[in-house]
């Protein structure tokens, strides 16, 4: 199963990716993680991008596509992969398609997880985390059983991540809408696109995705 997973921050991409990885035995490919691993390993590509990253500049699309191409040679990608975080623009999507075509690889589906923006902001900004063990909670959806005390470790100090603040969430949503959402028509035209409402229960969203993917493969 060869997939691209799209969706704004907080849509549940990470959760759905983990479930799909387990179901199909395929890796999740995050370009950010791959870049850092390449630099750490000192590969020729890693050396090339290290200076770019250290300067604060964006890594060019052609290098990202080369990075993905190299990663697809690894044995754990034989049965497929889930691309997360790339492509973000139509130019990147076109470059990725060309690389996959050159390697004789075709995508099974591009899965776009959609959300209600107001509900999504409420879902994210209500989150808080135990400072001691890192267990996550939510002001309305998942409070500790005893107010002010972590269920897991008994800790009494909690914090909110910067990413969970309303202004940060809105900025990330705006960036997604402006930069990434425009590639959706590109993939829709290719007839390998699935749009799923991500505001439902995790299991329901997963069932919708799996039913569509396995229906396509019959």
Word description of this protein:
The chain is α/β, with parallel strands linked by helices. It contains 9 helices and 8 strands. It has helices at residues 13-24, 31-41, 44-54, 61-71, 90-102, 117-125, 166-180, 184-189, 202-216, and strands at 2-6, 28-30, 81-84, 109-114, 127-130, 136-138, 158-159, 193-197. The chain has a 5-stranded parallel β-sheet. A hairpin with a 5-residue loop joins β5 and β6. α6 (117-125) packs across α7 (166-180). The longest helix is centred in the C-terminal third of the chain and has 15 residues, at 166-180. The two termini are 13 Å apart. The model has no long low-confidence stretch (mean pLDDT 89).
Question: Which descriptors apply to this entry?
Answer:
single chain, 218 residues, alpha/beta, 9 helices
The major sheet is characterized as: 5 strands, parallel
> CA-to-CA gap between the ends?
13 Å
Percent helix, as a range, is 40-55%
- Flag low-confidence runs: none
Q: Trace the largest sheet across and list its strands.
A: 2-3-1-4-8
Provide mean pLDDT, rounded. 89
Rg: 19 Å
Number of strands: 8
Strand content: 5-15%
SSE ordering: EHEHHHEHEHEEEHHEH
Structural category is alpha/beta
Number of H/I helices = 9
What is the overall silhouette?
A: globular
């Amino acid at each position: 199963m060869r997939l691209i997973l799209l969706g704004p921050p907080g849509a549940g991409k990470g959760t759905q990716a983990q479930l799909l990885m387990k179901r199909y035995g395929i890796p999740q490919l995050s370009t950010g993680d791959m870049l850092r691993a390449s630099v750490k390993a000192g590969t020729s590509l890693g050396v090339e991008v290290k200076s770019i990253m250290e300067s604060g500049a964006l890594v060019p699309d052609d290098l990202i596509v080369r990075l993905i191409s190299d990663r697809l040679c690894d044995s754990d990608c034989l049965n497929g992969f889930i691309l997360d975080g790339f492509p973000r623009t139509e130019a990147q999507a076109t470059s990725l398609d060309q690389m996959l075509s050159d390697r004789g690889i075709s995508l099974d589906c591009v899965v776009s997880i959609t959300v209600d923006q107001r509900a999504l902001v409420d879902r994210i900004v209500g989150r808080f985390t135990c400072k001691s063990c890192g267990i996550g909670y939510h002001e309305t959806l998942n409070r500790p059983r005893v107010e002010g005390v972590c269920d897991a470790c008994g800790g009494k100090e909690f914090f909110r991540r910067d990413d969970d603040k309303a202004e940060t969430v809105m900025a990330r949503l705006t960036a997604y809408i402006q930069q990434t959402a425009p590639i959706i028509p590109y993939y829709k035209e290719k007839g390998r696109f699935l749009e799923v409402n991500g505001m439902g229960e995790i299991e329901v969203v997963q069932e919708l995705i799996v039913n569509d993917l396995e229906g396509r493969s019959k």
